Amino acid sequence: MNERNIIVGLDVGTTKVCTIVGVQNPNSELEIIGIGTHPSHGLKKGSVVNIDKTVRSIYASIEEAKLMAGVDIQSVTIGIAGSHIYSFNSSGVVAIKGSEITAGDVERVLEAAKAVVIPSDREVLHVIPQEFRVDNTGGIKDPVGMCGVRLEAHVHIVTGSIPLIQNLVKCVEQAGVKANSVTLQPIASSESVLSLEEKEMGIILVDIGGGTTDIAIWKEGSLIHSQIVPVGGNHFTNDLAVALKIPHAESERVKINHGCVLAEGLNQSAHITVQGLSGTNSREVKLSFVAEVLGARAEELFHIIKNIIADKNLGNEITGGIVLTGGGALIKGIAELGEYIVERPTKVGHPTPFGGMTNIMQNPKFSTVLGLLIETSKRTQVLDNDINENNNNQMDLIGKFSDSLKSVFKEIF
Ligand SMILES: Nc1ncnc2c1ncn2[C@@H]1O[C@H](COP(=O)(O)OP(=O)(O)OP(=O)(O)O)[C@@H](O)[C@H]1O
Ligand SMILES: [Mg+2]
């Protein structure tokens, strides 16, 4: 198998590390050939807090994927989240030198849009073009070749803490592979879960992970807002452990097997038996009480999302509603509760199937890693096309992502 066609996504999550190996067949179709998942130890709220434990989890996940795929893994695309991520919109303007807009002009205007003051311990992870304006015409996605005298770019900029990005990259490299790029996790999840039509209409992707909830808001095919909220599935589990006075592992079992966020529809007399803390007897608890505890946390999360929409003044932009994904979206009743609180159509989004994807992988908890794989595959194709056509002027937007990342790596190492 040609090494160049091997593509690998690595999602280092708070609860699990997942590696997926794909291969690009001669028709440029992506096919999954290996997967490895391992419980994650060493992360808190999406950020590395213990290097050794994180390296071991990554190593185990990569080894499992390698064994299944029967190929060697040299480089991976990793996802990043964590509460250190901060994103904002910016814009820049340049004068056009020639009669036609060239790729060089686009590069200059993106540089101008990026020229904002950020703290010295932060780095720009992505500069994602939203739209270009040529003179008085807006809504342009690719201005190359157009005539005009003034080019304006509106972009979404994602920044992260340099030490925290470095820690993650260091763990990946200590596990024996090269991190060739870093992608914001909700961008990756959007790639595997949302359709182009949804991104066009205006939609909120909400990836409820273990440690964080990652948000990406799309309109007219562009990312207009992204944010990491430090509340995830682990908080639901912790709340239940405290309220029921049961061990954490028992609380996770109860949440997954019997959890629901809507107490109203439940049979009020239904009970389950739970294991008490060590040394105490097992007890009966009402299912409606379990749902009240989980429901309170889910309500808090949806109120945060509602406030983000209001604060950013995005109410009129999101005509497509909300898509929930990530392992935390599997809890019963969550879409109904979200729809009720945020007052927008809400559904649970599963990764869209493609070659080699089994039923097991069509689980919302694999949205990020599958998105990383798809994104890398698209980027590789763009690079291949560039090489084939020997034409660097044809810069794709995805290529732009990777370029901004290359500069991050250059500056970090
Ligand atoms: N069937 C289920 N019902 C309810 N919750 C579930 C279910 N399956 C998984 N979860 C929850 O999903 C969460 C893990 O989701 P996921 O695997 O997407 O997180 P992660 O990627 O490891 O974390 P993060 O993205 O925050 O770094 C855990 O809190 C887990 O309890
Ligand atoms: Mg995740």
UniProtKB/TrEMBL annotation:
Native source organism of the sequence: Halobacteriovorax marinus
Keywords: Cell cycle, Cell division, Cell membrane, Membrane
NCBIfam families: ftsA (TIGR01174)
Protein known as: Cell division protein FtsA
Pfam family, one: SHS2_FTSA
Top-rank lineage group of the source organism: Bacteria
GO BP, sorted A to Z: FtsZ-dependent cytokinesis
Main location: membrane
PANTHER family listed in its UniProt record: CELL DIVISION PROTEIN FTSA, CELL DIVISION PROTEIN FTSA-RELATED
Membrane topology: Peripheral membrane protein
UniProt domain SHS2: residue ranges: 7-193
Self-association and partners: Self-interacts. Interacts with FtsZ.
UniProt subcellular location: Cell membrane
SMART domains assigned: FtsA (SM00842)
Function: Cell division protein that is involved in the assembly of the Z ring. May serve as a membrane anchor for the Z ring.
GO cellular component, one term: cell division site
HAMAP family for this protein: FtsA
Family as reported in the entry's similarity comment: Belongs to the FtsA/MreB family.
InterPro entries: ATPase_NBD (IPR043129), Cell_div_FtsA (IPR020823), FtsA/MreB (IPR050696), SHS2_FtsA (IPR003494)
KW Repeat (keyword) present: no
